[in-house]
Amino acid sequence: MTLVNKVLLKISTAFVSIIGSSILVFSIIYLLPGDPVLSMIDPSVATPEMVANLRKELGLNQPFYIQFSEYFMNVLQGDFGQSVVNSEPVLPKIVEHFPATLALTITSAVLSVVIGVTFGVLSAIYRNKWIDIIARIIGLFGISMPTFWSGILLILIFSVYLNWLPSIGSDGWKTLVLPSLSLGLVGAGFIIRMVRNSMLDVINEQFIVTLRAKGLSERVVMYRHALRNALIPAITIIGLNIGELLAGTVVIETVFSRQGIGRIVADAIMAKDLPVIQGVVFFSAIVYVVINLLVDLSYSFIDPRVRRAH
Amino acid sequence: MEKLLDIQHLKVDFTMKDGDLTAIKDVSLHINIGETVCIVGESGSGKSVTSKAIMRLIDYENGKISAGSIVLDGMDLAQLSQKKLRSICGKKVAMIFQEPMAAFDPVFTIGSQIIETILENKQFTKLQAKERALYLLNRVGISDPALRLNQYPNELSGGMLQRAMIAMALACGPDLLIADEPTTALDVTIQAQILKLLQEIKEEFGMSILLITHDMGVAAQMADRIIVMYAGRIVEYATVSQMFELPHHPYTRGLLQSITTIDSDRSKKLYSINGSIPGLADLPPGCQFHPRCPFATERCSMELPPLREVNDRYTACWYAEDLVESFDWKQPSGETKNDRHSIKEIVLSDSKRGSEPLFTIQQLSKFYPIGKKSPFSRNSSYLRAVENVTFTIEKGETFGLVGESGSGKSTLGRVLLQLEKPTSGKVFFQGQDLSKLDAKELREKRRNMQMIYQDPYGSVNPRWKVGDIIGEPLQVHDSLSAKDKHDRVQDLLEVVGLNKSSFNLYPHEFSGGQRQRIAIARAIALNPQFILADEAVSALDVSVQAQIVNLLQDLQRERDLTYLFIAHGLNIVRHVSDRIGVMYLGQMVEMAPSETLFLHPAHHYTKGLIDSIPIADPARTRERISLKGEIPSPANPPAGCRFHTRCPAATARCREEQPIFREIHTGHWVACHDPL
Amino acid sequence: MKEVVNTKTVLHVPKWKFTKQKTNFSVENLFILGAGMVVIFIILCALFPKWIAPYSPTFMDTSLILSPPNSAHWFGTDYFGRDVLSLVIYGSSDSLIIGIASVLIGGLIGGIIGSVSGYFGGIIDVVVMRLIEILMTIPGILLALAIAAALGPGLMNIVLAVAVSSIPGYARVMRGQLMSIKKRKYVEASRSIGTPEWRIFLWHLLPNSWSPLLVMATIGLGTSILIGSGLSFLGLGIIKEIPDWGALLSQGRGYLTVGWWISTFPGLAITLFVLSVNIIGDKLRDTFDPKTSRTR
């Protein structure tokens, strides 16, 4: 298979995934046993007419496939539906809030990759030394601490007591520090563990023995050869993690009251505004698929075995 | 002669979770300038550990040199710091390994890895280094060196990679080349090429070679002196001619006698050493070989014999002088006159060979689709694993199947047993077309055809007890009560020479040879007519291999079994088989009775294969005309005769016209336009 | 077929040393022991909160609003004067139920899907895996969130949401494992003696496949509890008198400046539990990992 074919295949697969996830998102809201209308309005105050009107407004009295095709056609035209609370269209709202989320995602991704790869590699090379122990502890805590808790701890320490950084808001780089740290720690935890294992596997390979037998220094053996081999499988996981970070913003933006798309979701949950939740989830799915596609493609360029395999 | 390397009383320990484990002890040896020394031994002998200890590669595997010295050029490598050691590694001493595929970093090109070595050790510019890399690749016989320089390891075949590995080892002109089983993972034809190359470069670069091998034939061909190791110690140390003329240690003698050679008497039982190799953790006291030694006395079980000089050589046996004088030293002692009488003849006369085919294979082909993974790539092609093979297996005979890897011999076996469906062609078993059977009938048919695998551990469920493993076929086919099953399994254990108490043990508690006995017990549980032995003895140590071959032959005689014996070890196939089929690139190119095939091979490929076998007799080293090149990919076989690309006698006709598989003498079939 | 007179068997020695166990034994075992004790203690809290909690979770001591941790109230009191320690102890049951039930459901469904896909392979595998991949296009917490939002509040709904979001992980692990076991020689060996397929599946494939699933379920328990409490934190949880850890933490957020302890301790409980589960999971992985226990 040529490279062009591969890229085409990957892009088309990603496209199918997006269509699939649109069906999925749609099904979750409209097919699950819960009545979307009843979950949108408070049953204690709802009159039957209100329910019927809302149902009609949402097109819920039509068969599923019609509902879906309508929804899908709208999505293609950039119409992600509108809020049931204030009838605002969903997509413009998402687009408006996305930059704040993107900034947070990127900074925390950079943070987690830098911390994760550095500690992961050092941890494997200096196995059972103090740096390994520290790295493993960071790794374990990273994957075990809920972000909403680490976020709150950071606020307590750096905002409430030390008063160094703002606890809320989404303007300026200062507001980015704490949420990125809190979110980045999770990613770092996963990446440390992943890179460490990957590195240890590589170090046990036969070719490392060859390299040593050639008289290369440990530095060259580790950082030139072992590292490159270890990072190739790690990249996929790192890609997936960046996607997870995007999802993690929902929670962390609530903690830090940032005006990102996560915040929209949190508000929509409170207001039981299903179309907004649906819109944001679908939007995130698209971004997630695109990120993974990019990672996957970069993977084919980095690994010569994939690049050159006929 | 001047000593290049001098190892004295070397002891290597590995740190384990429950204390240290000694891998080798009291190993003393030296290598002179320009000399090839072979360390021969079976698994657990410590030969690899010895080789890795020289460059202190064991340091990275939790190993340490706890005693002794390794002196090279007046420096004791055992005492040097890793940093100082780096000025030796790669420059004065270089090393090549068993699996060339695993020995290269997969994400760097071959060229960059060789150049890296050169730059590390010499004051060269990048351009000079590249030139040298090109020269070296060319020297080791790699075609298109400029192209190979930019290729990644996965794009080269195993033989090519081993050549590249040698080129890399030569990069800085080392004084000593350590080769750790350099040809074990390669086909016999490629092995011959690599060994020849090693000999050439040794002369050319004025190196010494330390060759680690398990193969006495390789040692006979390559070595000036041979060191035999057993269970972490040197047991014998002599020049190659001394060693093969008159071994002084019972273990060496056993090893040499266990080897099947190209002209050994097929009607004889193979000589075998009893028992199995001890684990490092539970070595016997006294002489470590005494539990397996036919000459052992009480003294042997108490006192460890030192390596001492006997008749101008070294051996570690209390009774070496007496033993070599004794009457039956040169004669295998383990067998009686009766045993030696033609097992084969009995089988042959019983079954009236030739009258009754058990398997009839007609124009059998097996193709695997490849390269069809993407809807965007149009060309789907096939890997032609087996193509148009026709032959029969007679009742009661052993049919041997040989060929290099990629020849399709294993696939053929699996298709015979219907473990894979043939793409086309027919397989008749006991006159029935197997492809016409439905699933249930086929399962019933499997009673009569069983299989033994190469890897005796991988082919049994590791979570099952031995009793259940052997009893599985009984349980599947005969609904036996627990007690009946237990009894039957105990009988079977006894038949294959295992202790009855093995019933409740797990496979990992057994040695390789014992596991293969378990696999055999399981295969004969249902009293089948046919057993496919796919490389069944290839993974075993020489001393154990003979035991298993003998067991298989005993069972054949007692139970009137028919075998299809697939192996790449030509000597062993020759020993066990009545008739042999030779496969090349999915096709059968020659088929003949065992003796005929080896004495008068008609196909040039067969001749090449036979010529590639290293002979375990230094006196008979011949100038070999072994095969050139490597087996092409079965995805894209050459047109015409598939062998023409490597054939010394290929003509224009061979390139265009595929030869027909025809009978040139009674029972001797060959697919060649100009048979030998 | 490669000749397998492998020198690796010679290196019996280095093979053992490659396993990850040779670390500081006492220290590592101490960690595992501690983790086990934390898990057992928290499970006891969930089962018998009455015996362990010093106060009733609904008891409001209005004289002691927002009192910091002290000898009477180790974790302090909240805005209503409730004892935070007692709230955390009582809140453990819902948090654990969400975690354990969703792992059981997700693991079972994912395991079955993965087994089917891995066993049959071919077109079934392609279709099932495409579906799983689609499920994976939505990151775990978002998927759970969407489902929980659609189903409305309720303990079972949260369990379901978390379970569904965890299915792809289990399915992929089980599929991979089954595909690898399927190729083992002993499976073919069993087939070659005429064992019917259902027996091969039950005798050979399943028993050799589920240890990675078990490892993943252990670590998945931690993830599920994190996602479950995250949903509660966002307000998708069960609204009731005794909040679970996530909700408790969320309630404390409003009082960060006046009572750090209200949010801190429930979070600490989550972290400790998940941490312990992960330590145990790591140990299980080291024990079962085919890479370290491979005997070839």
Automatic annotation (TrEMBL), chain A:
The keyword NAD does not apply. PROSITE patterns: ABC_TM1 (PS50928). Its main location: membrane. It is found in: Cell membrane. Keywords: Cell membrane, Membrane, Transmembrane, Transmembrane helix, Transport. Residues 98-299 form the ABC transmembrane type-1 domain. It comes from the Bacteria. The keyword Magnesium does not apply. Gene3D superfamilies: MetI-like. One of its GO terms (cellular component) is plasma membrane. The chain crosses the membrane at residues 7-32, 102-126, 138-164, 176-195, 231-256, 276-302. GO terms for biological process: transmembrane transport. It is a multi-pass membrane protein. It holds the Pfam family BPD_transp_1. InterPro entries: BPD_transp_1_N, MetI-like, MetI-like_sf. Belongs to the binding-protein-dependent transport system permease family. This is Peptide/nickel transport system permease protein. It comes from Neobacillus niacini.
From TrEMBL, chain B:
PROSITE patterns: ABC_TRANSPORTER_1, ABC_TRANSPORTER_2. It holds the Pfam family ABC_tran. It comes from the Bacteria. Residues 7-256, 365-610 form the ABC transporter domain. GO terms for biological process: peptide transport; transmembrane transport. The keyword Ligase does not apply. Belongs to the ABC transporter superfamily. This is Peptide/nickel transport system ATP-binding protein. The lineage of its organism: Bacteria, Bacillati, Bacillota, Bacilli, Bacillales.
From TrEMBL, chain C:
Residues 92-281 form the ABC transmembrane type-1 domain. Keywords: Cell membrane, Membrane, Transmembrane, Transmembrane helix, Transport. The chain crosses the membrane at residues 30-52, 96-120, 127-149, 155-174, 213-239, 259-281. One of its GO terms (biological process) is transmembrane transport. Belongs to the binding-protein-dependent transport system permease family. It is a multi-pass membrane protein. Its main location: membrane. It is found in: Cell membrane. PANTHER family: D,D-DIPEPTIDE TRANSPORT SYSTEM PERMEASE PROTEIN DDPC-RELATED, OLIGOPEPTIDE TRANSPORT SYSTEM PERMEASE PROTEIN APPC. It holds the Pfam family BPD_transp_1. It comes from the Bacteria. This is Peptide/nickel transport system permease protein. InterPro entries: BP-dependent_transpt_permease, MetI-like, MetI-like_sf. One of its GO terms (cellular component) is plasma membrane.
